[in-house]
Structure formats: C-alpha cells, structure tokens
User: Fold this.
Amino acid sequence: MDLDLQGRIERFTLPEILQLIASSRKTGTLGIQKDDSIVMVYFKDGSVIYGYGPRQTFHLGQLLKERGVITEQQLEHAVNIQAKSENSKRLGEILISREYIDRADLEQVVKDQVEELLYSLLSWESGSFKFYDNQFPTEEEITVSISVENVILEGLRRIDERNMLKETLPDLDAVFTISASQEGRRREVSMEANEWNIMALVDGRRSLNEICKLAGGEREETLKKLARLKLAGLITKTDRTPQSETVSPQLDKMVNRLAGLFEDYLSAKSQTVRPVNRMVTETLIEEVD
Assistant:
C-alpha cells in the first residue's frame, strides 16, 4: 500500500478497507465521510486503537451511567467540573480523579464505544475514505486494541445481509480455503461455535454449495456465515474447481464396474471366490491409475 489508500465506499466496501489496513499492519488514521458526518478510526500495527465521530459515538458519561458504573449525580458533577475547566479536561479523567470510576472501567467503556462506532460504519453504502499513514489528529490517553476481524464478524451479524450475500458470494460453485495469517501479526478472533463448525468445512476442495449441504441446517444461514468469514479475511477464494467435479465421474465408473463384476460372480457358479476377488482388486487398481 505504497500509494494513498483513498476512494469511494461504493467501490470499496468498508469491510474490505478495514481488512486491507489490518492485513498490511498499517499504523495511522482512517478518515471516513458521508454527507456531513465524519469519523476517524486510529490503527496501530493493523489493530483499531481508537475512533470517534460526533454523530455516531455514544456519550461516554451516558454509557457509564446506563451500566450503573456511575450515578446521575456523579455524572452531573463531572460534567459541571468539565465545563468550568480552563484546559478542557476529558470527562474520563475527571471521573477517575474523583474516584467515581477506575481505569479498567474507563477502558472497557471506551472499547465498547469504539466498537459500536465501527458497527454503525459497516452499514454505510456510500461516502468517501482516506487513510493517513502514521498520523493521528489527537492524542488519546485511553486507547484499546480491537481485532478488525472480530469487528467485521459482529458488525455483519447486526445488519441486513441479503444484498451482502449476493455481492460477497456471487458464485456458489467457487472453492474457498482458510486464509494464511500475515507474518508478524497475531489473529485474535472470537467466533461462535457454529461459525467454527462452518469454517472447519472450508478445506480448499469443497464448493460453497457442498459446504452448505454438509453443514446441515438452513442454507441461507450457512451462506451468511461464509460471507462473514470472507469479509473478515478468514477465508479466501481459490482457482480450484470443486473436487466432486473431477472425482465423482471416476468413482461412478468404479462403482458401476464393480457392480458388473459382482453380477458376473453370482451368475458364474463354476468360478471360485478367489479368482473373482483377484479380478476385483486388479480392476480397482486399474481404475485408480
């Protein structure tokens, strides 16, 4: 990614953009704009460490109050102090100094706040973006570490996936394999049990249609999980054709040939079992070769 990463969301979806930054282990800021809404997402070595957007971000103090971490009175007190502060202290800093919360409380809420912001972004179908390499508009005292893959997986669970399915998996006869991890970058992926089960069926030989049959359950739900895995960069398309297309004809031929041999055996009363067994074995070897 030597050139500037910028463009329109209509051409590059946000999951693709986030995955590109993550897989390249980039550090810097992704700026995203839609109409008059602007969001900034900070990355360090491919992981999200912070994000803000006035129209998308939930108010920190409100989140703390809704979770019962602070009371209404404590929040009002901290907000009043912030309003009177000459150096515009951050609300979290004030709450910690007053011992209303500890740092762990603040870090967890900041993480949840950034994740909710990212989830909301995944529903954007238009807008523009630009990545600023090794640049951060603000210095944040509290930063977090969020897996891009986890954000994409969870975010796509929350939105309508019908159109996403058609765009992400246009060819259901395509064969996928598990993506290799980038050198020097650890993947910390949290998946549900049924998603692990689907991913286990992705072996670089089966088509998406075959995986759906083996998975059981509702076909559309399996495809949704496969689409999320693809958008999260966990599985990738190969140039191979489904194994069944090349192997099944051979197997059918072998089965038909064996059936004929056994019919001959049953009708040939005078033959012994040994010669027929030898003939079956030789035929199998010939068919495989």
